[in-house]
Amino acid sequence: MIDRYVIVLPTYNERENLERVVDALSEVRPLTPFSGDVVIVDDASPDGTGELADALAHTNPWVHVLHRPAKHGLGRAYLDGFRWALERGYSHILEMDADMSHPPSAVPRLLEAAADADLVLGSRYVPGGGVVGWPAHRRLVSRAGSFYARTLLGVPIRDLTGGFKCFHRRVLETANLDAVHGQGYVFQIELTYRTLRMGGRVVEVPIIFEDRTAGSSKMTPAIVAEAVWKVPVLRLRARGEHLDGRLRSGAVASLAASRPPL
């Protein structure tokens, strides 16, 4: 299979940000180790984001649009984007926010790290990473969420709630996406946890996360609450699905197996 990547960009009322992020991704495309595309997954945004996405796709052949009929949640949007990508033979599937919080300049680094990993995380909480523009309470919620999930699941990952990731297609082909039901924080936690349980190698690459300057955040107290009660369920569910070792091989070892939980 020829290496090709696609970046899945879910949108809902992101008209103010979408053209900016597409322009920024256009600038980094020549710097990536292999060629790639973008697919915008729009949930019938009432602000005209979907129409703007179509216009951007018309002038940029590497931009594609997947229209969904209504707002069904971030997790569902990503899963639909992943299935779209797998059907079209991409070797690497990235997820990132469309609000410029995730630095497009880091895409080449994630793809380079993916040469020896099943999943690469753009991490705020490893040396060299960080957050700009968040109030103290938002920083606390994010760090506490990662610590809570890391402790309950017994995994070494520092940034479990982040949404800037690069999957090798073998992860998404093996992970039973039909069984993933979470949104927001817990969606991100679940996919990383499933990868580790399957024996996949997960690598964290430092990024600087900058809070959005246009539009409104989609984070709600309900999304945080979902993570609190669903994280304990993830471990039991993964065991019930017998995910252990599905990706393990002599060449690619599990990070969870090679390092003790922190």
Which characteristics define this entry?
262 residues; alpha/beta; Spore Coat Polysaccharide Biosynthesis Protein SpsA, Chain A; seven-stranded mixed β-sheet; two-stranded parallel sheet; 9 helices; 41% helix; globular; disordered C terminus
Describe the structure.
There is one protein chain. This protein has 262 residues and is an alpha/beta fold. 41% of the residues lie in helices and 16% in strands. It is built from nine helices and nine strands. The protein has a seven-stranded mixed beta sheet with strand order 3-2-1-4-7-5-8, sandwiched between helices. The chain is globular. The N and C termini lie far apart (37 Å).
> Helix tally?
9
Q: Percent of residues in helical segments?
A: 40-55%
Task: Give the CATH topology.
Answer: Spore Coat Polysaccharide Biosynthesis Protein SpsA, Chain A
Number of strands: 9
CATH architecture: Alpha-Beta Complex
Number of domains: 1
Query: What's the CATH superfamily, by name?
Result: Spore Coat Polysaccharide Biosynthesis Protein SpsA, Chain A
CATH class value: Alpha Beta
Can I get a quick summary?
Helix content is 41%, strand content 16%. It is of the alpha/beta class and 262 residues long.
What are the SSEs and their pairings?
Elements: E1 5-11, H1 15-28, E2 36-42, H2 49-59, E3 63-67, H3 74-87, E4 92-95, H4 107-113, E5 119-123, E6 130-132, H5 136-153, E7 165-168, H6 169-174, H7 184-197, E8 202-206, E9 208-210, H8 221-240, H9 255-258
Parallel strand pairs: 1-2, 1-4, 2-3, 5-8, 6-9
Antiparallel strand pairs: 4-7, 5-7
Helix pairs in contact: 1-2, 5-8, 7-8
